[in-house]
Specification:
alpha/beta; binds nicotinamide-adenine-dinucleotide; seven-stranded parallel sheet; globular; 329 residues; binds uridine-5'-diphosphate
Length: 329
């Protein structure tokens, strides 16, 4: 009999790719989302699939699923700094109350649960590269604190459910991941630069661009998450690509790749924007025999083709999200 898996955040970037992967592996997938930062189009192709069902639900409210459940992947959460600045309370709630609800569901169903944590638990790191042993450097009351602290709480409550209730839990610390189905206007650097290139606008580098990131292609990320779920390791594992680049050099790469004539313009660096970020993936290599396979140039080309294929009106819509319609007061 097919295994049944619940994926929260299913209409988002990573959640929708995870739905595809688990369907491909023969699972029965239940996708759950309230569309606050997601998009129906990301799961439209699965609508009539016999092994896919979708439930529109805000996971900060009690979560109920009928029938057996073998696995839960909790991926619901705003993930872009612009999104979580606009909906800070929803961000705190989905990481805390939402995670509590899903842990409760996992316990009731005796399901194994994997939660999506983030490199942001390391904050603006003072240790480089970041290994799982590093405790981080987070400003609890800064604008990014709503995301970072929700994710840190998420890890703590997950470990508490594991230790106190014996729940089977897994924690992935995801480093910057990119690919198709990212929201073009969510403010993250890859859709931002690619959108600007397609609209013929100058590329906006924040600060002097010396801050670094390390970008992982979505297929590599999904493979790492898949292997972690079926491993027997309960502590957090970094999944990301260690190939580090400064944002200024990255902007130059995008200009070269897209053959655009725009220039780079500089804007203020957001508060608490991490200066350096690079995953130490030794643990994932050892435990999961995993490492990323996709070169940045290759992944960026595929992603740019995706953005290019979108209808023009989506390209010119500055922000297609009206968050207020999704927030229950
Ligand atoms: P995304 O915004 O594309 O997807 C998140 C999805 O969660 C959206 O579809 C949104 O509508 C849904 N959601 C949010 N709050 C919800 C709620 N209360 N109830 C139900 N659904 C809700 O973001 P993403 O990049 O796909 O990120 C997915 C997960 O991975 C998040 O938990 C994020 O923190 C984590 N993550 C992502 C990255 C990355 O680089 N993409 C890096 C680190 C961590
Ligand atoms: N950034 C930038 N220009 C943009 C968008 C982002 O220079 O138009 C920078 C941002 O300041 C950060 C990096 O790119 O240093 C990555 O930002 P992103 O929002 O993608 O994610 P983060 O890693 O900060 O969570």
């Amino acid at each position: 009999m097919s295994k049944r898996i619940l994926i929260t955040g299913a209409a988002g970037f990573l959640g929708s790719h995870l739905c595809d992967r688990f369907i491909k592996e023969g699972f029965k997938v239940i996708g759950m989302d309230n569309f606050i930062t997601g998009d129906r189009l990301n799961i439209e192709h699965l609508q009539d699939h016999p092994n896919f069902e979708f439930v529109e639900h805000d996971v900060t409210e009690f979560v109920s699923v009928e029938g057996k459940l073998d696995y839960i992947l909790h991926f619901a959460s705003p993930a872009s700094p612009i999104d979580y600045l606009k909906i800070p309370i929803q961000t705190l709630k989905v990481g805390s109350l939402g995670t509590h609800n899903l842990l409760g569901l996992a316990k009731a169903k005796s399901a194994r649960i994997l939660i999506a944590s983030t490199s942001e638990v390391y904050g603006d790191p003072l240790v480089h590269p970041q290994s799982e042993e590093y405790y981080g450097n987070v400003n609890t009351i800064g604008p990014r604190g709503v995301y970072d602290e929700a994710k840190r709480f998420q890890e703590s409550i997950t470990m508490a459910y594991h230790r106190f209730h014996g729940l089977e839990t897994r924690i992935v610390r995801i480093f910057n991941t990119y690919g198709s189905r990212m929201r073009l206007n969510d403010g993250r650097v890859i859709p931002a630069f690619m959108g600007q290139a397609l609209r013929g606008e100058d590329l906006t580098v924040f600060g002097d661009g010396s801050q670094t990131r390390s970008f992982c292609y979505v297929d590599d990320q999904v493979e790492g998450i898949y292997r972690l779920l079926f491993s027997d390791y309960v502590y957090p594992v970094n999944i990301g690509n260690p190939d580090e680049i400064s944002i200024l050099d990255f902007a130059k790469e995008i200009i070269e790749m897209t053959h655009t004539k725009q220039k780079i313009i500089y804007k203020d660096l957001p508060v608490n924007d991490p200066i350096q970020r690079q995953p130490d993936i030794s643990l994932a290599k050892k435990l999961l025999d995993w490492e990323p396979k996709t070169e940045r140039t290759e992944g960026m080309k595929i992603t740019f083709e995706y953005f290019k294929s979108l209808p023009k009106e989506r390209l010119y819509k500055k922000e297609h999200k009206d968050f207020s319609t999704h927030i229950k007061r």
